[in-house]
Fold these 4 entries.
Entry 1:
Amino acid sequence: MTAPFDLAAMLERRGALLEGHFLLSSGRHSDRFVQKFRILEEPSLLGPVAGAIAAAFAADRPSVVVSAAVGGIVLGYEVARHLETRAVFVEKERGVPTLRRGFSLNESDRVLVVEDVVTTGTSVREVIEIVRASGATLVGVGAIVRRGAVDFGVRTHALLDLPLRSYDAAECPQCAAGEPLHDPGSRRV
Ligand SMILES: [Zn+2]
C-alpha cells in the first residue's frame, strides 16, 4: 500500500527531503538527507501522514501506540489520535531506554510501534524490546520513511522507501569533486 497522496513531493516542498552533500550522524557522507522535523512541525502535513500509517494498521486493532522520544512523541500521538488509542513513548534514563512518567503496557495491550525515519532500526528495536518484556502483543511497526532494509520480525509498513546511499569520507564521490560538506545534525539539535 502506498500513501493516498504524493508524499515525496509533499516532503520536498516542505524542505524535508534535501539533496546535497551531508554528514550523517554515523560519520558517513550521503547525497540525500531527511530533515524529519520539517514533517513533524507541520500539523497539516503530519495529520494525513499519521492517518495513512493508522489506516495501514487499523485492522490489527491496536490498543496503544508506542514510539521513541523525541520525534516519535509527536508522530505517535497523531497516529493514536486517528486510531483512538493511547500513545506512550520510550525515553532514555541514564542511557537506558525505558517507559517513564507512569506509562505502562500490559499483556492485554496490542501495540503499534511507530517511528518517523527508520534507517538502521536501532531505536525501533529498543522500543520493541520494552514491548516484548511487558507481555503485550506487538502488531506491527509503522514508519514515515524507511532508508534501509530492516527486519523487526513483525509486519513493517513505511509510507516512503528512500534507500540510503552513504559513503565513507575516503570514498565519497562528492568529497572527490570538492563539494562542501553540510552537517544537518538531526541528532545534535
Ligand atoms: Zn563527502
Entry 2:
Amino acid sequence: MKRETNWHERYMTGDIPWDTGRYDFNLSKIVTRRPIQPCKTLEVGCGTGSNAIWLSRQGFSVTAVDVSEIAVQRAIKKSSKARLACNFFVANFMKQKISSAPFGFVFDRGCFHSFDSPKERSKYVKIVNSYLKRRGLWLTLVGSADEPPRNPGPPQRTARDITTAVEPYFNILSLYASHFDSNMQKPPKAWVCLMQKRK
Ligand SMILES: C[S@@+](CC[C@H](N)C(=O)[O-])C[C@H]1O[C@@H](n2cnc3c(N)ncnc32)[C@H](O)[C@@H]1O
C-alpha cells in the first residue's frame, strides 16, 4: 500500500493511537523552559493539529502540514473552533515545497521517526535544514528503541539513528529519554531531541 494511502486509511478507520486530543507535554516543557520565543514555525506531520494549536496559542505563527487530507480537515475544524489562525495544509513534506520558509522553529512529533531507511531520514533532515533560517531550531519527538517493540506502538529508533541523520546539519542542544504524552496506561518511550541549524 502506498504510504500516503496508509496514513489516510489510519485516520479514516480511527487507528491513530498517537492522537491524544491534546498537545504533548514534551513540547510545552522545551518551549517554556528553554524558552523558545514565539516565531514563524513549521510543524511537519501535524495530524489533527493539537500541537500546532498549542503553539499558536503561545503566540507562534504556525504553518502545519500533513500528508493526510482527513487529518488536516480535522485540524482546520479544531483551530477555527478555537478561533486561531494556524495555516494548515495538505502536503507531502518529502516531495512538495512549503512556500512560507524560512522558519525560526520546526517541530515534529512522530513524523521523522516514521521513515525506516537511513537514506529517507537523511533526506528528511536536509529538507528541515533547508526550511530553517540561520541558527533556527528543530525539536523532534521520536519513538525509542530502549524498550521491546509494542503493538500498538511507534516506530522505534536508537539515539544513534537520530545522531547519524542529524549531525551533518545540526548541533544537538539536548537529547534525552522521555515518553510520549499518551492515553495508554504505559506510554511509549520517546527521545526528545532539540537541535540548532549549524549555519
Ligand atoms: C505518528 S503520526 C503523528 C501525528 C501528530 N504529529 C500527532 O502527534 O498527533 C505521524 C503523522 O505524520 C504524517 N506524515 C507522514 N509522512 C508524511 C509526509 N511525508 N509529509 C507530511 N506528513 C506526513 C502522517 O500523516 C501522520 O499524521
Entry 3:
Amino acid sequence: MKVLENTELAQFTTIKIGGKADKVCIPSTTSELVNLLDELSSKNEHWSIIGGGSNILISSHGIPGTVICTTSLNWIENLGPDLISAGAGVRLPRLSAYAAKSSLSGMEFFEGIPGTVGGAIIMNAGAHGSSTSQIMETVSVLNLNSGKIEILTPKDINFGYRLSNINPNEKIILEAKFRLVSDTETAIKRRMKEFNFARRSSQPIKDPSAGCTFRNPLELNTPAGKLLDSIGAKNWSIGSANVSSMHANFIINGGNAMSHDVCKLMSKMQETVYQKYNVLLKPEIKPLGVFTKEEAIIWTNADQTEGNSFIITR
Ligand SMILES: Cc1cc2nc3c(=O)[nH]c(=O)nc-3n(C[C@H](O)[C@H](O)[C@H](O)COP(=O)(O)OP(=O)(O)OC[C@H]3O[C@@H](n4cnc5c(N)ncnc54)[C@H](O)[C@@H]3O)c2cc1C
C-alpha cells in the first residue's frame, strides 16, 4: 500500500482544491483496504475516503487524520456472458472503454464522467437518460458497524436521483458487478462518441471543476443550470472561483481558488435562486474536511449533511 505523509489533497481532486491530510493511504487490494479500516477504527483515528475526487470540495484547511484513496483498486474482470466486475477505484471512462471492447453495451454514459465505481454508486452517477442503478447487479461493501462484507442489490440501496442510501461513514464500497447487453463494438463506440460530443459542446470539461454544483430541483421542471443562467450567474466570481461562462451550474477553479471562495460563490448562487424562484438548490458537490459554520450553511440549509464526512467548526 502506498502511504504519503503530510500531503496536499488538491492533486487528488478534479477541481484542484484541498489543504493537507496527515496521511494519504492508497491500498491496492481489498484486503489492504479492509485491514487499514480495521486498524484506523481500533485506534479511533479520524479518516475519510475518496475515489476520483470529482464530486467533492475538500477544505483548504485540510482534513485531519487519514484520507483513503481507492484509485489503485482498479481491476476489471469479464465474468461473461454479460457480466463485468470492477474494483471500487476503476475509473468510469476506462470501464466503459473495456465494456465497448468486449462488445457489451449499457455503460456508454460513463464516458466523460471522471469518477470511479465507488463514487458512481454513492452518487448514482448518470447522464444521457441512464444511471448507475440501472446497470449495477450487485455491490460488495464492508459494513463498518458489523465488520462484515455484505453483497447488496439495487433494491437494498434505495437509489434516487444522484443519491443512494450508502453512507460512506458506515459502508465502504469494495467492488461491483454490472449487467450489460451484447451489441457490436462499432455501435457502442458510435454512441460513446455522440455522448462525448454532446458533453464537449455543453460542459467546460477542460477546466478544473467538481462537475455540477447543484442537483436539478425535483419540484421544478427546470434544470439547476437554467435557473442559474436566468439569474445571470455565468461569469460570477469570488476570489479565483468562477461560474463557468459555458454552463452556469459549473464552478471553475481559475488558478488558486480556495474552498471558502467556492462556498461563498455557492451561497450567492443558492440565495439568488431562492429569492427569485423560492426554491432552495441542494448541493451535488460533497464537502470533506474542516469548514466553518458559515461555509457549511449551503449544505446545512438544504438538509444535505447526512453521508457527508465534514467537520463544522465555530
Ligand atoms: C467534468 C465533470 C463532469 C461530470 N459529469 C457528471 C455526469 O455527467 N453525471 C454525474 O452523475 N456526475 C458527473 N460528475 C460528477 C462525478 O464525476 C460523479 O459524481 C462521480 O460518480 C463521483 O465519483 P468519484 O469517484 O470522483 O467520487 P468522489 O468525488 O471521490 O467521492 C464522492 C463521494 O463518494 C464517497 N466514496 C467514494 N468512493 C467510495 C467508496 N469506495 N466507498 C464509499 N464511499 C466512497 C466519498 O466519500 C464521497 O462522499 C462530473 C464531474 C466532473 C468534474
Entry 4:
Amino acid sequence: MGLIETDAIVLRSIKLGEADKIATALTSQEGVVRGVARGARRLKSRFGASLEPFTLIRLSFFEKETRELVTITGAKITKSYFDLTRDDSVFVTLEYVAGLILEFTPLRAPDERFFRMLKACLEALAESPGEVTWVCRYCEVWILKLAGFLPDSTKCGSCRKPLGREPGGAALNSGSNFECFDCADSRGIVISPDALSMLNTALKTRPGSWTHEAARKDRESSSEVGKLLRILIARALGREPLPRSSNA
Ligand SMILES: [Zn+2]
C-alpha cells in the first residue's frame, strides 16, 4: 500500500465539503481510480487546475485500507485541454465518453488500452474539434471492443462466412452478432457494407485519420453507424447509457 505514480486523465471531479475534491481518473497503470484531494478547492491549492476534467496529469496517490477511495497526493499537469473543453459541445461529448468508460470499466481494473485510446482521442480532438461527433463514435467503437461487446464485423457470427462482400451488408441479430443474410433469414437489423467497414477500420486506424475519413461520409452512413453503436451500447448495459454527470 505504498505511493503509486502513474499517467492519468481526469474524468470527473466533484466537490467534497468546504475544501476538498473527489476526482475520478483513468490511469495508464491502475485502471480507473477514485480519490480524495485534500485542500483542492482552496484558492492556493497545490493541485491548481490539475484536477479539471480531461486534463492529462502525472498522478500520485496512496492506497488506503479500502480500494474504493485513494488519497491523492499529487497531480502535475502534463497537458491541459482546457481551451478545448470550453466549447460546450466538446465538453458534453467528453462527459458522455467519460461516463461510458466508467460504465464499462470497473474500478482498479488495469487496462492500458483504455487510457491510450482516450489520450489519442483527446489529441485528435485538439487537432480537429469540429469532428467531435466522429471522435465520440470512435471512442464508442473502442469502448465496446475493449469491454468485449463489439461483434466481429468481418465474419458471419453463425457460419463464419466473410461479411462485407454481399451487396446488402449483414444483419445484426438479437444476440448482437452480425450474420450473413442466409443465416439471418430475414431477421435482425440490416447493416450496410459501409457501416460494417467503418467499424472494422476504426479498429485498425488512429482516431485522427479515421475521423477525417468518416467526416467525409454522407449523412446516411454516419447516422447509421451512430444508431448501430447506440443499440450495441444499450444492449450491453441493459439500458440506455446514463446522461452526463449522473454517475460521478
Ligand atoms: Zn452466415
